[in-house]
Amino acid sequence: MRYSSIIRVGLLGAVVAGAAGGTRAQDVPRTYPPAAPLTPDTAANNASLGDKQRFANPSVLGMGPSKGLVVRYERMPTFGVSSSAQVVGIQNYAGEISKNARLSIKGYIPAWNHPHLKVIVGLSYEREEFQFKKMPTNYELFDNIENKGLKSTAAQIAVIRPVNDVHWYLVRVKGELAGDYTSRELTRADYSRFSAEAIYGWKRSPNFSWGVGFQYGYTFGRLSLYPAVIYNRTFNARWGVEALAPARLTLRYNANSNSIFYAGYTVDGYNYIVHLRTPLARKNPDGSSDANTTPLRTLELRETEVKFRLRWEHEVFSFLWMGAEAGYRYNYAFDAFDRTNADRLKIIDSKFNGAPYASLELFITPPRKLLEKAGVRR
Q1: How confident is the model at residue 42 (pLDDT cuts 50, 70, 90)?
Q2: Which domains does the chain have, with CATH numbers?
Q3: Which band of pLDDT confidence, cut at 50, 70 and 90, is reported for residue 32?
Q4: What average pLDDT does the chain have?
Q5: What is the mean predicted confidence (pLDDT) over 163-168?
């Protein structure tokens, strides 16, 4: 497909998403209006428009624009890594990672867009790359992920169902392939992952919406079920807060109608399957071979990190926004577990040193003129 065709498709998806909102992993789909303007008259008109909405939704006045097509690149500088073996027969490791980068491409298209029901389909591809300062590391896990990278290909469906002008609920299900797979290994069943969330909420005013529910997924590295609370509130024309606790909390500052600042934290979890080229042998404490286990050929890699971040989103053109983000990453875990034997023991306990990070993002959003034709104020 030619680049011009790709751009037209992305614009179309973003335009339709203007009414239905987009979604990301751990994000609640947004509906317009986006960035609240500073002028009291326009803000009052937006509030009046919100009061006339017949059906409730999770979004509030002042939230940033919906995203139809998103391209993001994140990079971290050199930082230290240490690995401690948890079973006999595996070595320890200490060294430096000279590059840790993530590229993600995501697209969202509303499959159904009605006031009483909105269905958004999302597709995404993400790749995380590592480069170690000294290669080969002679550490099977790290040599493996440097050569092949860690990838995730996912599809998800989010459903927003307003009950009336106060109550709403949303359901999201996501399926993905996550690991060090190549194009020839996409059919392997052990790469598959599943996550879901369900939240019931209340729209108290155009500026306040909240809800409670649960999330089932890998936010904390391993598959788990945990409670979730949505809290979206705009206090005035400039300040607001957006939260999906405990995974994310963000304070928002609307500088004007086309520039928004954010500050807060996010908890990100990743879960990958890694197939080793050279099997690793687990041994008994005395150093002898363990007859009850087979050599390790598959590891489950659980990665959990907390990011303290500052973010700026700015309108470049009527349909194109950019996002710049910087902050500090604290790595909580980068651990490998046995997926070959049934006991699922932790094999390697790794720690990354804390490090700063930066990212750039471009995303397509509905143009102002099309929103005005549709009767949506920005």
Answers
A1: very low
A2: 3-373 (2.40.160)
A3: very low
A4: 82
A5: 93
